[in-house]
Amino acid sequence: MSFQNSSIEVTEFLIGGFETIGRPMVVAVVILITYLIATLANIVNIVFILCDKRLHKPMYLLICNLAVVDILNTSSASPTIIGVLLVGVNTISYVPCLMQMFIFHLAAVMEMFALAVMAFDRLLAVSYPFQYQSYLTNVRTLLLIYLVWIVACSFVAVMPATVLPLPHCSSKLKYIYCDYAAIIRTTCVDPTYYFNMISIISSFLLFFTFIFICLSYFWIIVFVKLSSNSDKRKMGSTCLSHFIVVTCYYSLLFIRIILTRLGVVLTLDEWNGLMIWTILGPSLVNPFIYCLRTKEMRYKIFQIFKKVQTSQ
Asked: Mind telling me which InterPro entries this protein's record contains (predicted)?
């Protein structure tokens, strides 16, 4: 009863976290440029893969899926952050905020799932080079992608399901966008239970996917050691891009976990900066790594530049 008496009806949230930031216009322009480059690069990757039938292979379908996830990841929170800093729109309606929360966390879960599936793909390619195309066909790859999206949505659906019934005592978000922790802190309940529940789910997903990827690379290394020198170079080349992407993504996650567990106190600006880089960093790096490290993608880009030069 005390919750209901002290609760308020929330139709929109006030986005906080920017009160102490210096030179917001400069920060906004940097984030905007980074967001546009990351989004455009991922769209180019998707277009290259969809328009070239030679790239309609399991590995490139998985790269295409990762590009979709990266676009979803950057677009979940970046427009809100840019809107607050650049235009001064520091409110967001209740339903769009919940949608942003769902999309943001869905993209985070899907990033882990996408990288784990790509590790599985590379393991099959190295372990069974001659049977690989029969084991992992395009149809099976698409079914696998659909399956991980459904599983990811099932995990993330816990968040809006637990938030919706709760009464709110505040309409101000502590952080710079709508994530689960920020919304829970606006409710009238003790957040400990809800934080612990999400921590268990996220820790399970994080370590399950990370251990799966590590085990995949362990077996890849075993097969590489048993192969000839020419095969070693070929296998190393096919796995290096994925390894760089995995390192880029999980290193940021583990930095956050280590800082939290060690009790390192970050200022609000430092925490916001880490969160923004976690959102934008992998999505910016991933498409360029696959364009530069993948032979077919490099050849496609070279052909386009060659056509442009000859037309001029």
From this structure: GPCR1_Superfamily_Member, GPCR_Rhodpsn, GPCR_Rhodpsn_7TM, Olfact_rcpt
Q: Is 39 in contact with 67 (CB distance < 8 Å)?
A: no
What predicted TM-score, i.e. pTM, was given to this entire model? 0.88
For residue 13, the SS3 value is: strand
Please write the tens of the pLDDT for every residue from 207-265: 999 999 999 988 888 877 766 665 556 566 667 778 888 888 888 888 877 776 666 66
Q: For 58-90, what is each residue's pLDDT tens digit?
A: 988 999 999 999 999 999 989 888 888 888 788
Tokens of 264: 């390192």
The distance in angstroms from the start CA to the end CA of the chain is 75
- CA–CA gap between residue 116 and residue 210 (Å, rounded): 8
Q: In the block, which residue shows the tokens 């970046």?
A: 78
- Give the span between the Cα atoms of 35 and 193, in whole angstroms: 35
Q: Which residues of 175-209 are buried (b: 16+ CB within 10 A; e: fewer)?
A: bbbbbbebbbbbbbeebeebeeebeebbeebbeeb
